[in-house]
Amino acid sequence: DRAGIRIVSEAAIFAPNVTFTEFTARKLSNPRFRGIGSSPGNPAVTTFIDGVPQLNSNSSSIELLDVDQIEFVRGPQSALFGRNTLGGLVNVTSRRPGVDKWTGQMSVPFGNFSAWDVRGHASGPLIADTLSASGAFSYAEREGFTVNDVTGNDLDSRGAFSGKGQLLWKPAQQWEARLIVSGERARDGDYALNDLGALRENPFRSSRDYEGYTNRDIFGTTIQAERTGASMRLSSTTGFLKWKTEDSTDLDYSPMPLITRDNAEEDFQFTQEVRLASAAPRKLSDAAALRWQTGAFLFTRSYQQDAVNTYAPYLLSQFIEFPVNEYSPVSELEDFGLGLFGQGTVTFKEKLDLVAGVRLDYEN
Fold first, then answer.
1. Are 54 and 45 in contact (CB under 8 A)?
2. Quick one: which H or E segment has residue 234?
3. Cα separation, 351 vs 155, whole angstroms
4. Label partner for 290 (CA 20 to 30 A): which of 96, 123, 156, 358?
5. What is the Cα–Cα distance from 248 to 307, expressed in whole angstroms?
6. What's residue 26's pLDDT?
């Protein structure tokens, strides 16, 4: 809060060898660890939000509401988290609802470029020692940094409303369940792109005849359940995630009416993970102790994209006097996957960890 971190990528300044390749619209935010990264649809660094992987990075850069911590785990994590963590993972966890008393907070920060934000949260018990709840919201907007020299308007504005609600249920000392529901409605401006030479001569300026937009809607539900025994801990994480984006831009990025692009994407994913882990290190000798975990992961995913490039009359040929639409691409993805994994860590004299893990994945 004191650092003014509002989205995941803003926390990366505190993590070595972590960068985010970002467009001005928060839809496109691709993490890179130690130089390793890839496209949004098949990320090499995956963001996990409360244990739910964001299988497309279009849904990963969201407002931080009731967040407890952000971890940037560098290096391959594929044994525990699958193929899309070759470079590492970003792990975001929400703050647990308070169980002792009701607390709340509200803030209204302001900044330049007409930036302002209203944020609030409340948390406390509903039934003493059994059921507690929390709720948080945020509305933030700012003007753009980049001016369109053709119209004088800002291009890369941002605005979003976000909300999160939680329930924490502890029916017994060893059992607990948690329900997390969150959503975001973002209405951002156009991509602030221009010729690189022109930007070096005149930063934060662009010239185009068409000004577009980038809209994104996200809704997610996470269900966590855990039983902690004397020697083992059993946990389950169920995730439902639905997001939809629409963006429109001047694809030639010039004052000439040449090419525009309209892109619509939507995705629904279901994930289920079950883990069994040691509750505490098991002593192997006076100098060594063992921690272990094993589990299974299942996911299904339905993704659609419909992108259209529209060429102006006479651009492709002097004989074509009407606009031409090129679908690039029209695509669908119906995906199913199942993974089995295990990992053990032997610690020697609390100074050296030896880690071994294995994972088997099937995907169709």
1. no
2. strand 232-250
3. 53
4. 96
5. 10
6. 82
Partners of 205 in beta bridges:
147
The residue to which tokens 């909300």 are assigned: 163
Cβ–Cβ contacts within 10 Å for residue 128, how many?
9
- The shares of helix, strand and coil residues in the chain, as percent rounded to the nearest 5, are 5, 60, 35
Neighbouring residues of 214: CB distance < 8 A, sequence distance ≥ 6 = 25, 27, 186, 188, 189, 190, 191, 245, 246, 247, 248
DSSP characters over 301-334: EEEEEEEEEEEPTTSS-TT--S-EEEEEEEEEEE
Token pair in block for residue 304: 């659609």
Scanning the structure block, which residue is given the tokens 């990366």?
12
| pTM for the whole structure | 0.93
- Judged by DSSP in three states, 120 sits in strand
Partners of 13 in the β-ladder: none
| The token pair that represents 65 in the structure block | 């509401």
Alpha carbon 174 to its chain centroid, in Å, reads 31
Beta bridge partners of 7: 63
If we measure between CA atoms, which residue out of 205, 187, 188 comes closest to residue 196? Answer: 205
Three-state secondary-structure class, residue 257: coil
- What are the backbone angles phi and psi of residue 28, rounded to the nearest 5°? -105, 100
Contact 208, 259 (CB under 8 A): no
How many angstroms separate the Cα of 310 from the Cα of each of 202, 265, 289, 315, 316? 29, 18, 63, 10, 11
Alpha-carbon span 310 to 194, nearest angstrom = 19
